[in-house]
Amino acid sequence: MITLAEARDRDDADPLREHRSCFDLPDGVIYLDGNSLGALPRATPGRMEAVLRGEWGSGLIRSWNDAGWIDAPVRVGDRIAPLVGAAPGEVIACDSTSVNIFKLVAAALAMRPGRKVVLSEPGNFPTDLYMIAGLEAQGLAERRLAPVEHIAAALDQDVALLLLTHVHYKTGRMLDMAALTHAAHEAGALVLWDLSHSAGAVPVDLAAANADFAVGCGYKYLNGGPGAPAFAYVAARHHAALAQPLTGWMGHVAPFAFTDDYAPAPGVKRLLAGTPPILGLAALEVGVEQIARIGIAALVEKSRVLTEFFRACVAERCPGLELVSPDDPAQRGSQLSYRHAEAHAICQALIARGVIGDFRDPDILRFGFAPAYIGYEDAWNAAQALGEVLASGEWDRAEFKARAAVT
Ligand SMILES: *Cc1c(COP(=O)(O)O)cnc(C)c1O
Q1: Looking at residues 252-272, what average pLDDT do you find?
Q2: What is the mean pLDDT of residues 306-333?
Q3: pLDDT at res. 234
Q4: Any idea which residues carry the catalytic annotation?
Q5: Whose CA is nearest to atom 15 of ligand 1?
Q6: Using CA positions, which residue lies closest to atom 14 of ligand 1?
Q7: How far is the CA of 195 from the centre of ligand 1 (A)?
Q8: Are residues 118 and 68 in the same domain?
Q9: Based on the domain organization, do 156 and 128 belong to the same domain?
Q10: Distance from Cα 271 to the centre of ligand 1, integer Å
Q11: 228 lies in a domain?
């Protein structure tokens, strides 16, 4: 059995150890859900206070210029860009991931006249599939779903866009971005990658993969806070042709000319629709800066070793428990998912012990390992708790089986 002392030794040798104190986590909690809502960086409240009292309270409307509010979507986008292999000017922080998917799917369809199919996989994150369906209901798109192993065969002359999630939210399986992008391009289609479970946790190189578009969440591994603005990427080669349907005034070339006719801003700025949420962007900026300071390479290395450590601890303590995530850490995101018929109740029993993971319908128990602030002792304790919960049957209580609105 792997011992607690061994876990502590690994924490002592962890090069990311000092960064853990940059996050404000409650005592008595082992937080394995940073892939769903990232932890609070210690610097965020101070920054929010400064934005609220100084920039808003004192600066008032002058802060659009004086505090750089108007540039925040592009500035924060530029900070996210190197984390996903994009160049400055190719990423913008705005709206939600869902809304950005809508804009980019519509833009991609407009770039492939005569083709209407948007290809994705069944079991993709719901909002991705629903957004395609929404455009289908408007007569603009035709949704086609094919399992990943059949994607290549489903890429025919009707496909305008391939929309895939890089790291699957349920299983953690990571797709080969370069290979799938190449296959789509060979068929004349464009590609939109959803990086919600990738950005800030796994290596992403949009440029090397020759990706066309991408979106991702600000509140997961980027620690931007609940409902943080998302990000959207458009390869520079598509900027001139990009036409998205939410043609709001903030995406206009000259918003303050107040003209009657829309003309898009150059570059990714045309993805803006309405006034940017400055408070949300301020919190996101702190989260992104924190991740950038640690560095993606160090985060990826830690994530791989840490999830392997947890996998080994769980294998010892819960020998029959089925791992649904890939065995190879290079083929998965920073999470491990297990299958159990009573996953929901087990998850609740773990939360009662202070181990916060989550449950994904119908039978998935998901543990996210945000490498910036989760340590080996956390992983050891979580595996130990899981072993005890399973062995004791303590999950078998009505209160643990009751479903909440948000799981
Ligand atoms: C979390 C997540 C989203 C969330 O989209 P929102 O618009 O922020 O609610 C989208 N796609 C994937 C793959 C996700 O994991």
Answers
A1: 98
A2: 97
A3: 99
A4: 125, 194, 219-220, 366
A5: 196
A6: 196
A7: 9
A8: yes
A9: yes
A10: 18
A11: yes
The reply to whether 61 and 83 lie within a common domain is yes
Token readout for 108 is 């991609």
DSSP annotation string for 347-397? HHHHHHTTEE-EEETTTEEEEE--TTT--HHHHHHHHHHHHHHHHHTTT-S
Residue 141 confidence (pLDDT):
98
In a domain, 38, yes or no: no
- Cβ count near 294 (within 10 Å): 19
Domain count, the chain: 2
Residue 280, SS3 per DSSP = helix
Is 396 domain-assigned? yes
Half-sphere exposure of 107 (CA within 13 A, CB side): 28
Q: Rounded to the nearest whole angstrom, what is the distance from the C-alpha of residue 217 to the centroid of ligand 1?
A: 6
CATH label of the domain that carries residue 318: 3.90.1150.10
Lowest mean pLDDT among 16-30, 153-167, 393-407: 393-407
Ligand 1 binding site (Cβ under 6 Å of any ligand atom): 96-98, 125, 127-128, 165, 169, 194, 196-197, 217, 230
25, 82: one domain: no
Q: Where residue 330 falls among pLDDT bands split at 50, 70, 90?
A: very high
Prediction pTM value: 0.98
Whether 385 and 355 have beta carbons less than 8 Å apart is answered as: yes
Domain span including residue 188: 46-293
Q: What is the mean pLDDT of residues 139-151?
A: 98
Mean pLDDT over 184-197 rounds to 98
Q: Check residue 393 and give its pLDDT.
A: 95
Q: Which atom of ligand 1 is nearest to the CA of 99?
A: 7
pLDDT of residue 407: 80
Ligand 1 centroid, distance to 15 Cα (angstroms): 31
